[in-house]
Amino acid sequence: MSILVLAEHNNKEIKSSTLNSISAATQIDSNIDVLVIGSNCDDLANKISNIDKVNKALLLDMPEYENPIAELYEPVITSLSQNYSHILGPASTFGKNIFPRVAVKLDVSQVSDVIKIIDKETFVRPIYAGNAIATVKSRDKIKIITIRPTSFDPAAKDGGSGNVEKITAEKINTAPEFIGREESSSDRPELGTARVVISGGRGLQSADNFKLLNEIADKLNAAVGASRAAVDAGYVSNDYQVGQTGKVVVPDLYIAVGISGAIQHLAGMKESKIIVAINKDDEAPIFNVADYGLKADLFEALPEFSKELDKLNTIQK
User: Fold this and answer.
1) Cβ–Cβ < 8 Å for 7, 32
2) How far is Cα 58 from Cα 48, in angstroms, rounded to an integer?
3) 14 with 141, same domain?
4) How many CB atoms lie within 10 A of CB 5?
5) pLDDT computed for residue 212 by the predictor
6) Residue 313 pLDDT class (50, 70, 90 cuts)
7) pLDDT attached to residue 193
8) What is the DSSP letter of 170?
9) Burial class of residue 67 in the structure, from the number of CB atoms within 10 Å of its CB (0-12 exposed, 13-18 middle, 19+ buried)
10) In the beta sheet, which residues pair with residue 141?
11) Which one of 115, 132, 166 terminates a domain?
12) CB contact at 8 A, 33 and 163
């Protein structure tokens, strides 16, 4: 039994979701290969081959594979599929784009957003916006699985002794044309994998007021998130959205500011280890899941919070 993990990367750096997927794969079997598809990513493949538990990195390096287009990736994965019992990848935007197409082509049922692995055939995943947990058994010959990255510790980046095996693929002329990419850059941790997240809701009242969160995020080395209400109001872009239709986060600390706690938002953050809520409405549903709640006006509480962090940083220095 061999496992193939599809690497998520930007042709220069390994995404942390890849390390989480490899870690999940080790709970099924120790014979793990990682498929690296991209352009000018020889160095990246070498790094992946040195990840602990990785047997080898399969490298397809061609200019047309610079961007992760499902119609291009799927034929590569399906051509390799007969050599593997399990094919894994992250339940990120990357994985959600590619894996359903692979499952359809292989005529198997995908097991999505897995948070726990029982054995080689049995997996645990949330359903109904996280309000129920399903244990799923798959008897498909080839199992297509997406992993919730935050539910598995990342694999060690070193300690492995694998090798890189280069592969080729036939040119496809019918794939969509890649036009361009717009990305927001930030020095803060990535929202989906950050250990600390501070999120704002409609209670912040404007885009300018998100600077209150940014100030605290910089001091905590935290990622900034938002509720759907804040995104729909135009306060921040949808890259920030946490919830059922946004990103799922499981940080060590989640701070919800001015967020009422609609079920759609709770689906994306209620598994956080510690939840702190700041809201002036003491009947807000967010308090039902919060470990610590502060009934206060956020415009008074956040500046005080920031001052206390400054004092703490001064003491630590």
Assistant:
1) no
2) 10
3) yes
4) 30
5) 95
6) confident
7) 81
8) -
9) middle
10) none
11) 166
12) no
Let me know how long the chain is: 317
Cβ atoms within 10 Å of 306's Cβ, excluding its own: 14
Q: Which residues of 248-268 are buried (b: 16+ CB within 10 A; e: fewer)?
A: bbbbebbbbbbbbbbebbbbb
Question: Which two structure tokens, joined as six digits, stand for 97?
Answer: 């784009």
Asked if 103 contacts 143 with a C-beta cutoff of 8 angstroms, the reply is no
Looking at the fold, whether 149 and 33 belong to one and the same domain comes out as yes
The amino acid at residue 79 is S
Tell which residue, 15, 35, 32, has the closest CA to residue 23: 32
Distance CA 150, CA 142 (A): 24
Token digits of residue 29:
């079997």
d(C-alpha 293, C-alpha 274), whole Å = 11
| Residue 164 pLDDT grade (very low, low, confident, very high; cuts 50, 70, 90) | very high
Measured CA to CA, the distance from residue 24 to residue 292 in angstroms comes to 31
> How many domains would you assign to the chain?
2
Of 91, 13, 88, which is closest to residue 45 (Cα–Cα)?
A: 13
DSSP at 122: E
pLDDT tens for each residue of 165-209: 999 988 777 778 888 877 666 678 888 888 999 999 999 999 999
215 and 129 assigned to the same domain? no
308, containing H or E segment: helix 298-316
Average pLDDT over the chain, rounded to whole? Answer: 92
Residue 9 bridge partners (DSSP): 14
